[in-house]
Amino acid sequence: MTFSLAVIGAGQFAGSFTKLWSLHPGVGDIHVTDLLPERAEALVAEQGLAGTLPSVEDVLASDVDAVAVFTQRWTHGPLVAAALDAGKHVYSAVPMAITAEEVAAVVERVERTGLVYMMGETSYYNPAVVYVRQRLAELGDVFYAEGDYVHDMDLGFYDAYRYSGGEGWKATASYPPMLYPTHAVGGVLGALPTRATSVSCIGTPDRRGDGVFDRSVSMWDNDVSNATALFELAGGGAMRTNEFRRVGYPSHLKESRFSFFGTEASFEQTARSSVWQDKEQVHDVTDHLHARSGSADDPALADVSPALRAAFTSGCAPVHDRSRLPAEFEGARNGHEGSHHFLADDFVRSVTDGTLPPVNAWVAARFTLPGIVAHESMRRGGERLPVPDHGEPPARR
Fold this sequence. Notes:
Strand content: 15-25%
CATH superfamily of the largest domain: Dihydrodipicolinate Reductase, domain 2
Mean pLDDT: 94
CATH class of the largest domain: Alpha Beta
Low-confidence stretches: none
Order of helices and strands: EHEHEHEHEHEHEHHHEEEEEEEHHHE
Structural class: alpha/beta
């Protein structure tokens, strides 16, 4: 049995997922809408999808079973709430929302309706996060963790904002770093069974002078391009998060990087290496966590197991377990260190089976709210503020 899907937003990211969903045996017709109709038409023509719909209103009034939101990041909360009100299951790109009120509105609707909501947080399937989840007990008591999203504006963000923002792109390119927190926070909290309870955040005003992080132009009244937050975690311990947009770092090699320190062992990453350490030795686990794409005919893969060969040729890392994925995904383009295949399948499984996805509304709130509060702390000069929480999903209560 399949379900129908409408994609809202046909920008640079949506096509990666429409391709996977069109391959998935659990998905039927896929329609697309965009504020620029030619973009929706181009995506439908390129991938042979079912067709376009004129507007978001038409999507919500249609009989499609689910929607996937790939619009500009500050529009997600209201669009998701409207889709849930219309009786649609929802997949949303990150972040969940940009205010605490918007987050609460989504959680309330999901709890009331029983519909599936999933936030497509790539870091949940980041190889490092998967690896630490698997070895969490060996760390002992984890008292400190780091999650950094270091993506310089010069490495793709200028083009992305020009593409999505049109002539007024500089007004939105000043988007506050801590309102895009989930690639960093979600990696740490995707591995540790805890949540943030308070935060203090410091921001660095931008000095490039190119009119992007300019408060007189910014939709957000924001001139901060780099921000650092220190969170208190429930049950003890701390999490530090860096959101950097002006940084001498090769973000095209690794945008998100993580570290975890426990009483018995630790894990650390740089752009090119990953190490597991105990009190005696340092163990290089870089190859085990390296996501790559290649040909099945590569001589270097001649002696590896079928499972590893599948990982290496599908944009995944050896740490990823691909046995649960549909066979149709083999050879399909992947992304964000092997996460796209798992994200696309997670959503289909949840809608089809009526189960909670890993990054459900309650988990997404815990990945998103820390950044929202951190931004407010930064605006208050680093004042320590409490982070609200919506608790556990009803099925776990």
